[in-house]
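Hello forum,

I keep getting stuck at the same step: I have a sequence, I want structure tokens, and every attempt I make locally crashes halfway through. Rather than fight my setup again tonight, could one of you with a working pipeline run this one for me? It's a single chain of 352 residues.
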Amino acid sequence: MTKRKLTQNQKRRIHSNNVKALDRHHRRVKKEIDWQEEMLGDTQDGVVVTRYSIHADVENSQGEIFRCNLRRTLANVVVGDHVVWRRGHEKLQGISGVIEAIKPRENEIARPDYYDGLKVMASNIDRIIIVSSVLPALSLNIIDRYLVICENANIPAVILLNKVDLLTDEQWREAEEQLEIYRKIGYETLMISAISGKNMEKLTALLADGTSIFVGQSGVGKSSLINYILPEVNAQTGEISETSGLGQHTTTSSRLYHLPQGGNLIDSPGIREFGLWHLEPAQITNGYREFQYFLGTCKFRDCKHIDDPGCALREAVELGKIHPVRFDNYHRLISSREENKSQRHFMEQDIR
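Reply #2:
Ran it on my machine without issues. Output:
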């Protein structure tokens, strides 16, 4: 018997019921764990190293980790946040303390969610590592989605192509040519394999400085990379679905790991689709760094950079100063943003 697909309305109701159930549980836990002033110690600094649905793990200056409740006034606590927290004099139902406040963030990376709006994934990041894979196929469009986010967040990006052990010599040359598009405009790229160990020493050297975060679709091998870098973590790995070509989600909560060679690594849940409908068209345009020199020089101020006469971007493509693949991907992102924005509008109308 064929399994019936859920409508958007049904998906919304299921999601809403799940949120309400979690909220009821959260309120119940909050009520049961009612931290009084005399039950808590002095305030201290900490860093959020793991975020769960209703709790967070905080690491203190001595490297000890404590599971904490969150004050109701805190809107959104994420991995990487520097926080002020208080430890309880004793544990209550496995909870060691409470997070009182979040310190100002240097930066943050967020993704849009149809139900929750803009959802922050992590904060205080020095480097975003975009993990792509040769299986099922190297998608430059997906890479460009992430790069637009990186540019708007003003966080440096590195493009990582994993599973290169699966490439033939010819496929290797083709992948090199594709990555050269990004190297020419200033992005660092790396071709690696967590299976064969190809160039993994270059990756570990890169990670030794600051805090990095892996982003990428499910199934590109983020967990396998972590297993290689931190074998004691034994992160759960997933395989590519033979029917859909999409990976199975293997990480359920964001987590920060300290690396033996120095530096920190944040592993975030796999993201199959990184939508851009929360960005304005101008933000997507500005997310293409090689466009910057030509922007503002089009014949018309309201140029859409499609077939408008006197378009400086199209002229730059024709002159070989902007790669046509990037220019085509740019228009695909603009179109997909409008489609997703329209879909979200209808969903919100339905909710009302």
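Confidence is low (pLDDT under 50) at residues 28-32, 236-251, 345-352. If your local run keeps crashing, start a new thread with the error log.
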